[in-house]
Each structure stands twice: as structure tokens, then as C-alpha cells.
Design a protein that fits this description.
This protein is mainly beta. It has one domain: Jelly Rolls (Sandwich), CATH 2.60.120.10. 0% of the residues lie in helices and 52% in strands. It has no helices and 9 strands. The strands form 2 sheets. It has a 5-stranded antiparallel β-sheet, with no helix packed on it. It comes from Roseivivax jejudonensis. InterPro entries: RmlC-like_jellyroll, RmlC_Cupin_sf. This is Cupin domain protein.
Length: 101
């Protein structure tokens, strides 16, 4: 998998030795993060009620139905592209766990 640049806008809010917190904003339906692999464990906190389409290698597409403020956790190694499946702007906060200390 080759990492690619998507059309969603990442805004790094905190970046230190222990965590990186990034807001991912998707202005339009179809905007995406670009293909990437997560090198560390992470938590996502949706800022909307709606759907993201998760594309994985091999062409698999799964819908993730999210609720505002309801977080989910994933372990390092996940490879995917995340796509806005909504007819409205959406965003989520991604918290990467860099160092357990």
C-alpha cells in the first residue's frame, strides 16, 4: 500500500512525545483521508452523526455508522482510506497514542 494525499483537511491540535491529536474535516461527500497505515494505536471521536466509508486493500468498502462523541479504538497496523459518505460536512478527532510512558 502506498500512502496518498486525500481531500480531507487534517489540523494537528496537539503533538508531543505522548499523543498526537488531529481533527480530520471532510467538507463534501467523497472527501477522503488518503490511503495510510496507522503506526500506533489510536482513538477516534466523531463530531457528527452519520456514515464514513472505510476502504481497505483489495477494494473492500465498509460503512461505519458513527454517533457524535461516541469514541472507538483501533490497534496499530490498520491500513485504509476513510471517505465521507454523507451529504454534509463532517469531522472527527483522531488521538494517536505515541508513548505509553
Amino acid at each position: 500500500m502506498t500512502e496518498t494525499t486525500g481531500t480531507a483537511t487534517p489540523t494537528v491540535m496537539i503533538d508531543n512525545a505522548r499523543v498526537r491529536v488531529t481533527e480530520w474535516r471532510f467538507p463534501r461527500k467523497g472527501d477522503n483521508t488518503g490511503w495510510h497505515r496507522h503506526a500506533v494505536d489510536y482513538v477516534v471521536v466523531p463530531q457528527f452523526d452519520g456514515t464514513l466509508v472505510i476502504e481497505t486493500e483489495g477494494g473492500t468498502r465498509n460503512e461505519a455508522h458513527l454517533k457524535t462523541g461516541v469514541p472507538y479504538f483501533r490497534e496499530a497496523g490498520v491500513e485504509h482510506d476513510v471517505v465521507n459518505g454523507n451529504d454534509f460536512e463532517c469531522a472527527f478527532i483522531e488521538i494517536e497514542l505515541l508513548d505509553p510512558k
